Structure formats: structure tokens, C-alpha cells
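Re: that backbone. C-alpha cells:
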């Protein structure tokens, strides 16, 4: 028999001018709170077997540091808890405070590691999880899925030229070049639900100076009546956006209207109504089966052969690197002009900043392990706009000669995780998978999980850690934003497929987890918010 509990906790952190994470813009700061942020936790248990916790937070993504902190705090209350028993994901709002990662690239715009933000998020997740654990009760778990009709303006492929490079591309229409299915677990009789649908949580754009849970948070607000907990999570949102429309006088593409806050409500209402519809359906009852797989993986050193490269020969991944397309952004916001990206790409190649074996067509703009930017660790010598706050802090850090940089600029060792809940499989990845990348993962893994009784599989990004995007080999070659932000090279997807395939067959060996850094340690060895203010 299933026993399921659910709870939520407020994780809103605000102080005037706090940096928001998502758009890569150091001037994207908050001056008000438009909506509260929450952590929503579900505790699943079968009989007397160990409980499993699924947590979703209204933040941009889950950092490795945050994942480690929440796990260790929960384990202090529940000593038998294993890493595989905890799955944490984010709704991917771009309007929540940053500063909760120990890796510089993800806290430079805060600016710096922010102990207050980190503590608020970690404490709220643990509080919600323990409350969910205390509220376990006998339950029926049902699964249903349904596709949004094409005319509903909730999801569009924002990278059609890259999408069409895939041999299996099936359409020229952006609204159809996505996974339009919403997946849902409904908990009866309590009425709690988890809804998954892949579309970027970006209706609140970078010119909006507010803290907001965006459209997925609004969907939760609409569904959470009478003590119900309703979480709205992501699937393969890497190349999917609700911001498809161009309006006169407005530079970034927006949702159905020119008003970002109205778009938050419109897109949120679509998802809330879908969740209500799926809850009303009888759905498929999930038998009380709960399995989990987990591994820490060094993604910088994975060999792959043709089983996983799909006829592209043997290959390998390498240390994380980001290309010039990464700073070009997308049509919905962020980034420098395309002509600048092209110039930087040409200059990078002229300087020999290439690694064709691993990174293929991507010039190496930011190298995570060597900490080189445009080929140098002397960031203070680069011709960057000194008036930009992030540039100013980078230049100051460079002059410290390695102080406050104990880790690579982005993580190399990351977790992968698979759950089986009845007949539903959930693949939790620390990346943003594109539509076709997710489809290929489903095709790879479903035959391996079917003998265990799994006949539905969803790919959940933004989970347990974060290191950019996950594109297909063919999308990667095109080198637009998503490809430039795929860290470990042209065979990144092949590496993920190999790891997951061997993981569920119990053939993959976990590597040592990254170093755990306590908050008091972080204050001393990381570039922090307080330090940034002091030197700013």
C-alpha cells in the first residue's frame, strides 16, 4: 500500500537589489516581491520500505551545494535516508534570487555566494520534506497524461533551426516541435498532485525587477485550495518557451500579450486547467512499487562508442566549456547581439581556442577547470565593459590569483537519478534537455525499464545539480545558445545515455561526490555577497 504525504514551505528571500538568477544579466535585480516562492515536498512510501522524497522549488535550478545541504540535513532527522531516496527539482523561474551555488559562474550576478539565500532555500526544503513525512497517510496514486492542443499558446520551440538539424525532426511548426504532453501523478483522496510540463518559466523577463514564481508558481496558486499541494515541474524544456510572439516596440519575444504579468497568469491558467482535467480523469492506478537508482558522475571523462553516438564513431567528453553562443542569449531575452557572437567566435578560432575532438564546432570561450576566459586566467586584462558590475567583480577576483575560487567555474561531477513509481519512470538530470534529447533518452531507457514494469517515462531537467544544456549531436553542431551552453562537448548526450543505461542495469559505478562545503566555510573561501559589496 502507498503512504503519501505532501507539504509546502515559504522560501522567499528578499532584500532590495538582490541579484536574480536566470538571464545572465548582472543588472537583473529585485526591488519588490511580485509573488512568494515555495518549496513543495512529497513523501512516497510503500509499506515499511524507506520513504522517498520528491521536492520542487520555485527557483532557477538546483545547485550541487544545495542538494548536498538538503540531503545531509534530512539525513540528520532520518538516518536511514540514502541519496537515491531524495530527488530535488526546480520550476526554473528566472525571477528568484541567486547566490546558492559554490561555482562562480552561477553566483557572479548575485553578486557572490549569498548565505542568506542559501539558508532560506535549504531550510524551506527540509521543512517541507519533514512536514510531508509527518503527514503520510494511505493513498491511491494515479498517473495520467494528455497533450495540449496545438492552438493553446503555451509552448513553442525557440530553436527551430537547430531542431531541424535532427534526422528525426518531424515538423516545421514551432508549436509542434515540442513535447506537448503534460504528465501527472494525482494523489487520492487528499487531492495533492505533481504535474510535469516542459516550457521555460520565463514570462517574467529580465526587465521586470521583481521576485516571482512565474507561470508555474501561478498554476500552483490556482490549484492549492483547502490544503492541497500542487507542484508544477519541468520536463524537456531546453528549447521550449511560451515567449513566441513579437510586439511593436518590444525587443524580446513575449507570451500571448505584451504584458509579462498577464502572460504569467495566462500560461499558468493553461497548466492549472490541464492539471484539473487530468485529476478528474480516472487515470492509471500505480501499483505500490518504489525503486531508485543514483550515481555521482564525472561528466568530463566518459568514453562512448557507436551504441550511444548513433553511428558517429567512438568519442569522449571533456572538461566543461562554454562557447560564444552562450553569451548570445535567445529571442526571449539575455545576451549580446548576434554579430558580436560571430566576431568573438572568429577571434576564438584564430587564437586556437578549439578542441575539435571533444568540443567539435564550439570555440572555447569559458573553460571551467582551467578557469580561462577567452584563453587567459588574467580576466582583468580582457577588453570588457568595466561599468558592468559582473565584469568589475570578475576583474577583482582575477587580481586575487586564485583566492576565493576553490572549485571549477562550473561543476564537473554531477548526479544522475532514476525513480520507478509504479509503472512511471522519472529520469532526473542536472541539465536542461531539449525536446529531441529527451525523446532519444526515452527511446533508450524504456526498453531497459520495461521488464521492471515501467511503461511511462518522463525526463525531468533542472534536478539535483546544474551544468547547462543537453542537446543532441546534430543540434550541438549548429552552435546556437543551447549548443554553446552544452558543457561537456558534442558527445554529452551520448555520455548521458550510456550512464543512464548502465545505471538502471546496475553496471555504472558512482564516483566520489564533490567536496561538501559548510555555510561557515563558504563565507571564508568563496567570493561572497558581503565581499562583493565591500570591494564594489
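Recovered sequence:
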Amino acid at each position: 500500500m502507498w503512504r503519501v504525504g505532501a507539504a509546502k514551505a515559504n522560501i522567499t528571500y528578499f532584500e532590495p537589489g538582490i541579484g536574480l538568477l536566470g538571464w545572465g544579466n548582472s543588472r537583473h535585480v529585485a526591488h519588490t516581491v511580485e509573488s512568494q516562492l515555495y518549496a513543495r515536498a512529497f513523501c512516497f512510501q510503500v509499506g515499511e520500505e524507506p520513504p522517498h522524497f520528491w521536492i520542487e522549488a520555485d527557483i532557477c535550478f538546483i545547485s550541487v551545494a544545495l542538494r548536498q545541504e538538503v540531503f545531509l540535513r534530512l539525513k540528520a532527522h532520518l538516518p536511514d535516508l540514502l541519496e537515491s531516496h531524495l530527488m530535488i527539482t526546480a520550476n526554473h523561474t528566472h525571477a528568484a534570487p541567486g547566490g546558492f551555488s559554490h561555482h562562480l559562474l552561477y553566483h557572479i550576478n548575485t553578486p557572490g555566494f549569498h548565505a542568506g539565500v542559501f539558508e532560506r532555500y535549504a531550510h524551506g526544503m527540509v521543512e517541507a520534506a519533514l512536514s510531508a513525512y509527518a503527514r503520510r497517510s494511505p493513498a491511491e496514486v494515479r498517473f495520467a497524461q494528455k497533450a495540449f492542443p496545438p492552438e493553446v499558446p503555451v509552448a513553442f520551440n525557440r530553436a527551430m533551426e537547430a531542431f531541424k538539424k535532427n534526422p528525426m525532426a518531424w515538423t516545421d511548426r514551432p508549436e509542434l516541435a515540442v513535447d506537448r504532453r503534460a504528465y501527472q501523478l494525482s494523489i487520492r483522496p487528499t487531492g495533492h498532485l505533481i504535474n510535469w510540463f516542459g516550457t521555460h518559466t520565463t514570462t517574467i523577463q529580465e526587465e521586470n525587477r521583481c521576485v516571482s514564481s512565474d507561470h508555474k508558481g501561478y498554476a500552483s496558486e490556482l490549484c492549492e485550495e483547502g490544503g492541497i499541494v500542487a507542484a508544477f515541474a519541468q520536463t524537456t524544456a531546453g528549447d521550449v518557451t511560451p515567449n513566441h510572439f513579437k510586439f511593436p516596440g518590444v525587443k524580446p519575444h513575449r507570451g500571448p500579450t505584451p504584458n509579462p504579468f498577464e502572460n504569467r497568469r495566462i500560461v499558468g491558467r493553461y497548466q492549472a486547467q490541464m492539471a484539473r482535467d487530468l485529476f478528474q480523469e480516472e487515470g492509471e492506478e500505480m501499483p505500490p512499487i518504489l525503486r531508485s537508482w543514483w550515481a555521482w558522475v564525472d561528466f568530463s571523462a566518459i568514453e562512448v562508442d557507436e551504441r550511444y553516438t548513433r553511428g558517429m564513431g567512438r568519442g569522449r567528453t571533456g572538461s566543461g566549456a562554454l562557447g560564444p553562443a552562450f553569451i548570445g542569449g535567445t529571442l526571449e531575452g539575455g545576451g549580446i547581439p548576434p554579430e558580436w557572437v560571430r566576431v568573438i567566435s572568429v577571434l576564438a578560432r584564430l587564437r586556437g581556442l578549439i578542441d575539435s575532438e571533444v568540443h567539435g564546432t564550439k570555440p572555447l570561450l569559458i573553460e571551467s577547470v582551467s578557469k580561462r576566459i577567452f584563453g587567459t586566467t588574467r580576466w582583468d586584462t580582457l577588453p570588457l565593459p568595466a561599468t558592468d558590475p559582473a565584469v568589475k567583480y570578475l576583474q577583482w577576483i582575477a587580481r586575487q590569483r586564485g583566492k576565493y575560487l576553490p572549485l571549477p567555474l562550473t561543476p564537473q561531477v554531477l548526479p544522475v537519478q532514476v525513480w520507478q513509481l509504479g509503472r512511471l519512470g522519472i529520469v532526473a538530470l542536472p541539465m536542461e534537455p531539449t525536446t529531441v534529447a529527451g525523446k532519444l533518452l526515452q527511446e533508450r531507457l524504456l526498453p531497459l525499464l520495461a521488464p521492471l514494469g515501467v511503461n511511462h517515462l518522463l525526463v525531468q531537467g533542472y534536478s539535483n545539480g546544474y551544468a547547462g544544456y543537453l542537446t543532441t549531436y546534430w543540434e550541438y553542431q549548429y552552435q546556437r545558445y543551447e549548443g554553446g551552453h552544452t558543457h561537456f562537448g558534442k558527445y554529452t548526450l551520448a555520455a548521458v545515455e550510456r550512464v543512464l543505461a548502465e545505471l538502471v542495469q546496475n553496471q555504472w559505478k558512482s564516483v566520489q561526490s564533490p567536496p561538501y562545503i559548510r555555510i561557515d566555510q563558504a563565507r571564508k573561501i568563496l567570493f561572497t555577497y558581503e565581499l562583493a559589496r565591500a570591494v564594489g
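The chain has one domain: 2-295+412-504. The radius of gyration is 22 Å.
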